[in-house]
Structures are given as C-alpha cells and as structure tokens.
Design a protein that fits this description.
The complex is a heterodimer of chains A (327) and B (103). Chain A is an all-alpha fold. Chain A contains 14 helices and no strands. Chain A has helices at 5-21, 23-26, 35-47, 55-63, 82-99, 102-118, 132-149, 156-174, 193-209, 216-229, 242-259, 262-278, 295-311, 316-322. In chain A, helix 3 runs parallel beside helix 5 and helix 7 runs parallel beside helix 9 (193-209). The longest helix of chain A is centred in the middle third of the chain and has 19 residues, at 156-174. With 103 residues, chain B is an all-beta fold. In chain B, 0% of the residues lie in helices and 46% in strands. Chain B has a four-stranded antiparallel sheet, with no helix packed on it. Chain B has a three-stranded antiparallel sheet with strand order 1-10-9, with no helix packed on it. A three-stranded antiparallel sheet of chain B has the order 5-6-7, with no helix packed on it. In chain B, strand 9 (92-95) and strand 10 form a beta hairpin. The chains are: A mainly alpha (327), B mainly beta (103). The A-B interface holds A 36, 128-131, 134, 185, 187-190, 194, 238-239, 241, 243, 287-288, 291, 294, 296 and B 43-47, 50, 65, 67-72, 82-84.
Chain lengths: 327, 103
Amino acid sequence: MSIRMDQIQPIIDREYDYLMSEHPHWSLTKGDQDLELVAHALRVLLHMKTTPQHPAEYLALVDCQHADGGWGKLSSDKQSAAWVTAFCSLMLIRGNLLLKNPRITEAVRKCVRYFLETQKEDGKWSDPSWADLDAVSHPVSFFDVLMAVGKNVVDESTIGQVKAAWRKGMCFMLDRQASDGGWYDPEFHPTGVEITAHLIQDSIVADMVLTEELNVRECCQKGVKKLLSVQAADGSWDGENVDHTMDCTRSIMLVCSILGTRAQCDRAIERGLEWILKHKCEKGWPDFPGMETNLERTCDGLDTLLKYKVYSQPVTTAVVKLWGYAA
Amino acid sequence: MTFLAKVSEIPAGERKLVKVNGVDVAVFHVEGRFFALNNSCPHRQGPLIRGALENWGEGPVCAVRCPMHGWKFDLATGDSHGRPAHATVYPLTQRDDELYIEI
C-alpha cells in the first residue's frame, strides 16, 4: 500500500471536525432534514465510533418514523419510500448495537415489518425515485445486517420470514446480472457502474451467511472484474463522478477482502483513493472535480477513508465489521 | 429579465454553468436553441451541467440525463416523464448576442 495512514488520519480528523461544524445542516435535532443526508452522517458517526456520544441523533430518527415503519425522503414527508427507509433502518440497527435503546429496538422491528409487508411477489421492492435494483438492494442489505448481527431483535418466526424475503430479494438481484458482470438499468443506470458497486457489496454477504447454490462468489468476482475494467486511467469511475468513484473504491475493498483477491485489487483501490484525495475541496468533497463541496459527498469521502483505514489492516474481519456484517 | 451570458460564449453543442442571483443555472445550446435549467437535479441534487444530452425515443436531442442516478429531463419543459419530480426550467430571451433569463 503506497497511501500511508499518517497521510490519511489528519484528513479524517479535519473532515470530521468540518462535518460536526455543519451539524445544523444535517441533524434532525435541529429541524426537518433530508433523511438520506442524515443517514450518511449517522454512518460517519458509526464508523468514527462516536455513536455513543450522539444518542439523540438516532432517537430523532425514531421520532420521525411513520406508523407503517418507513420514512420519506424528507423527515416531514408523510409517505414512506423503500430506499430511504432501508438506509434509515440500517443506521438504527447498527447504531443500536452500541446504544441498546429499547425505543430503537422497537423502531427496528417496525422496519422489519415494513419490508416484509411491502416486498413484491417477484422479490423486489419498488420506489419511484430509484431503479428496481436500487430499491431491492438496500432492503436486502438491511436484512443482511439483521441476520448477521440482529437476530435477537425479532422472534424466530419473523427471522424465518426475513430469510425467505431476503432470499427472494437476493435472487431478484442475482438473476439480473449481465453476462459482462455488471448490472444495468436503462433509465437510472445506463453505465451500470454505481449499481454494480452497490450490488456486489450487498450480495457478497450471502457468501458468508448461506446458500452456496446462489453462486454468489462467482457473481461478485465477475462484478469486481467489470468494475476494474471500466476504471479510468486517472483512477476515477463513471466520468470523474466522485460519488461513484467512492462507491467503487469502498465496494471493491469489501468484496476482495471476502473473496481473498486483494492482490488483484489493491492497485485499483489505491488509484481510486488517490483520485478521491486529489479532488477534495478545501473542506469536504464535491460531486465532480472543481464543483462546490457538498455534505453528502463529504460523508461518503470520510466513510471511504475510514474504510480504507480498516482495509489497510491485514484482518478481514475488521472490514466485514465496518460494513455492519459482523458484530 | 437578468443578463445570463453572451451567445458567443456558448457555441452550438456546448454548455455553460452560470450563477444568477445565487442560483446555479445550467445553460445548453442544442439543435440551434438555448435552454436554461436549474443545475440541481430534483432527485439528489446532482449537477445537470454534467449530464449526457439525449433524445426521447427517435426524436432529436432534447433531454439531459443527470449523471448521478440517471433521471432524465426535457430541456424545454423540465418534464421527467414519470419520475416524481421535474427539473426547473427558466424562460430565456435572446437579444442580439446576449441571453437574458427570467428567474
């Protein structure tokens, strides 16, 4: 690894301070917020291991949960949507491993019910703001985490239902992988880069949990190979897209750690990270090089550095833990 | 009406990001016409100025696809054809070599 931790750590510290200085712009304790941004920020707290100092942030998310167990795009929205509900659910179940708050436990149970009740017959979840593959990948990821670290949250019969729903969702995703290893949606993901990065990291967990017959390892290997093949010479992905470059860099870290293929991926990860560091703003990260900083991308940037910090250690279980797939 | 840009600054097929009254406006010069949209995609605020120019079906180029998550908008109307929100489009007026915007 040519990127040294003594380079990375000061950036993590500075960026975390910056994020906290922007607290009124992402915290539900300060008013109505975009919940995807909130979830991004809560993930940073988790990975910075500062969650125990911020229980109010997680409880505020519980406060705006709808009766059906979901959330909308904005905390004030009345209609629940699958994508953002899954992101919020993930933050609550993971946050509560540390907070152990009974109100959060109950909220997570409501999330489970929401996803069991809204799954379609063919295994997907639908969200008009996202492709079906997006809308299915996040609930699958929530169920991944529930089965890995949160089985005690629900009773045995519910875990049985979760396993069945998870399996249907997983099959929906795996069945739609293209022969070149990527996943695509003609409307939302014509290049397939971002969705492939998301789906390989959501799928790889199946290799740890269950079902050899799903052939997940081969799907993920093909997915990684596809992503490596479309990385630009400068280290970025998808036309210098900062978000998608962060997605690919993080996802490949997890998947190659589990597959045992770090040697083939190390250089691509480093190149991705070098590009990400090169194009950061004075504070935070932009959506594309040269643009103004934005908080959601700043959370993604911090998350990428924090994951790299763990990836650079030789212990694979630490990587798996940081994605929430182990306690 | 507020001055937006010189026509000569945006050749055919090109685009330009202009800040007007604190708003980022993405200006496109497509098929001999100028279009001005709020640069922020209503989905996740992706920058439309970086979007691919496309058509609807077999027609001429008349839409921009957000580079973040693929939402596609009609350049003239902002219509997203089925997505839950539309892009904001601003009326333009051309006076000789100058473009003016209603914002």
